Amino acid sequence: MKKTFLKKVVISGLVLSLALTLTACGTTNQASTASGSSTQAASNYPTKPITVLQGFSAGGGSDQLAQMTEPYLQKILGQTFVNQYIPGATGAIAWTQLARQTKSDGYTISITNTPMLMTNYLMSSDIKYNIDQLTPIANVLTDPGILVVSKDSPFKTYQDFTNYAIAHPGQLTIGNSGTGGDDFFSILQWQKATGLSLKQIPFQGDGPSWQAAAGDKVQASSTNLGVVYSQVKAGNLRALALYADKRSDLLPDVPTLKELGVDMVAGSSRGYSAPKGIPDAVKKKLEDAFAQMAKDPAFQKGLHDAALPADIKIGDDYAKYLKDQETTFKSIWDSVKEQVAAQKK
Amino acid sequence: MNNLMMGLLNVVSPFNLLAVAAGTALGLFVGAMPGLSATMAIALLLPVTFGMDPATGISMLAALYMGAMYGGSISAILIRTPGTPAAAATVMDGYPMAQQGRAGKALGVSLTASLIGGVLSSIALLTIAPLLGKAALSFGPVELFAIAVLGMTIIGSLSSGSPIKGILSGVAGLLIAMIGMDPISGVPRFTFGTMYLFNGVSYVVALIGLFSIPQALRLVEKDDGSQKAALIKDRMLPTWKELKSMIVTILRSSVIGIFTGLIPGTGGDTACWFGYNEAKRFSKEKEKFGTGYPEGVAASEAANNAVVGGALVPTITLGIPGSSATAILLGGLMVHGIMPGPTLMTDHAQITYTLIWAVMLSNIFMFLEGLVFTRAAVSVTKVPNKVLAPIIVILCVIGSFTINNSINDVFVMIGFGILGYFMDKLDIPTAPMVVGMILGMMLDNTMRQSLLMSSGKWSIFLSSPLSTILLIIALLSLLQSTPIFAWLKKALFKKNAPQLGGK
Amino acid sequence: MSNLAKHGIASAVALIFAIVFYVDSFNLPKDAASLPRILTWIIIILSLAMFAEAFYKERKKAKVTSDPALKADETDEPQDRIHVFRIFVFAALIVIYVALIEPLGYFIVTPLFAIGALIYLKSTKLWKSVLIAIGFTVFCYFLFVAFLKLPIPMGLLS
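ok -> structure tokens follow
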């Protein structure tokens, strides 16, 4: 008994000293990079793994993007990516950390999802970051909004749907992924554009929303193409309209809202952003990496297979896109806010 | 049938067998660690499987899920700390059994019940999955509300002693669940200006605190050196006679588990309580529950393992995850380039059937590995109480930190721990609070969604036969705990007795 | 502390909890506030009921203390003596431990907490305490950091 105990002592001692040495090595490494002149560090970038803050749990949509892009970026940049999941407050905890507490050296970036990136702080004064505190690097994909109904629904076409909405103002029940989510805003945008009104039923996420439509619990659901593509393909859901610029080659029979006379485009996009003030050379390097990845046919095929439409916007294009979106959501939310305020007791 | 055979052949290839065995073993271990739930373990292991063949990778993850469901009961029984939230109900009778020196038996009952629950749910998955899968879509807000209401009646049966205290604890749990971003109105509720509370108080974090920290404190209260005779020589597995006495409970819990798994949004965390509650309801010896009654352990454990197969049913037939763990499995499939959805069983039959057989096999691995692992784990009871106490604290701290990578969660965990200690001292049960926290959001959301749909008319809850039946059951169980029911039963029984005699 | 006083404090805590939530619910839209407000009322009623129940029991007990049968019950209690001060110190150690994790790092504070707690509780011999503390910390390191690759607060070590 005593012997085994001693043995354990020796082993744990060895292991501990090893662990200490390793951590010590880690610290010295980091110290040396920090002490090197910043311009040199920037031109050598990246010399150590890049941390990616994710505002959502592992296995979610944000993680899906990470798993699809990071192997390619790793090859191009020659450094590994470390995903750090900080779920909470629809991404706001991670993004606040990115905007306010992260060193702007390019070794910590984050996956930024619209519209949550903007609506978080537009809707709540408790959330203290904003997109001006970020350096948008690149948008990777935009999952367009889509209007779906159950396969047994009396709405065979978009016209059936609008006719019902005209005849029953404020009666047609439509599921969204939660108040403040992309689908909530899409429906508001649609109501504003058409002058019709629907009855929004918020669910906790896209899944419950389309499932309620498929089970005929609500009359329709506004969700995203990537989410319901396989359900539409298998005939469990019928797609009435796509909120994209042009038809998707995945569902070529589904008309866009623009074709149907409603001038709107909506969806949720996912990309990467860094904190404000990263060195220009680092920014350039990251942007080039995304541009190079976007050309890779294997990467394009991966996105296509997952029914996720690529939407590459690099650097300033992405920044402008975010800013435009911010303006759109702000104006929509401001008009809704009055209604919400009126609802308060 | 062809696909069935192909899947079986696929799964018995040495590499796949190894993956399933390894996944199960990892699940047992991770499940036993407080804070590391099955969902998290699957998420952590997901990147490892990217290098594998999709069928192998997904099978390994499903095996891990199965293993973790049993693994959670090990720490629940031995140190009163549920390893996963799905083992919370196992504490109720498992820990008292361990205190009486029957830790080995409790774990044996748990393992056997887990095996039966798991096998039954695998059979359901293999045979009637397409049929059952359709049922998942019949649960909308109205039906889910009825389930949440039914779930709330569990609180009644958990508050032995003073019903006032039990209900108080449950309602407080419900109110705590209201904290956080409200998806219906889009405003944060009771967050008092802190962003941390936007996601609400995680019941997983609270659960660790409420169950484990009071236990750590209790262990140092007194001087007796512990050694509650961990009779490992004592037969672990239940005898045939013992098994026969609880087989009805195990079967009932298995069915409950399969259906709870099937319903999107509810998983093992809820199923264990439902299983426990129904076992108690139908038992002739209600008063024995909570005092170290093997049937209580069996009821909870059969239910949470049955969830695995149940939750996979809508996952593979419709692409709807039946629980949070299967949601991550679906995410894993997507990264492998497989679109989860209704086409899974036809277009990707090879992967799907391999997965189903892997789940079946993982039961056997769970049983064999469980026997070995448990024997080692029982030695925990030989550790002196005063050594165990700080170790429990350290595990809880790291466990609650890793869930959301947040130090605030650790503070909340300790806060609930201290609260739990005082609640124990006042004989206020903590279990109802956990049930309240699990069901609170579901109750509030589905109620308001339904009322939105009906423009405020409450009659919507009786509009679907399913919800009507569930609500009637809820009403009955409510009446059961009041004197009216006993009186009614007496009156009815008197009337019926002669008729029965006549036959 | 008497049983009644303990219940009094518990009821007061529950009341404050409910009232804080009740007041805060007025910042919410009516729809979002409805269920929470009902819950706060239930808590208020139940916490008063709990106190009343304790009060009633106390009075009943006081009436029958002369009964020799119940006396035996009370003499049982001292046997189960609880080290209140020890619990307090141990809880304080836990709180300090948790508070220092973020600034100093898990792998520095954990062995210190374990050694401190084991020595204070006189759990085992000193050298064994040190070994258990360090051994368990190393185990945690390998399980969570090296094997599961989870981010753990490193504090000074980072």
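The domain at 44-142+268-335 of chain A is CATH 3.40.190.150 (D-Maltodextrin-Binding Protein; domain 2).
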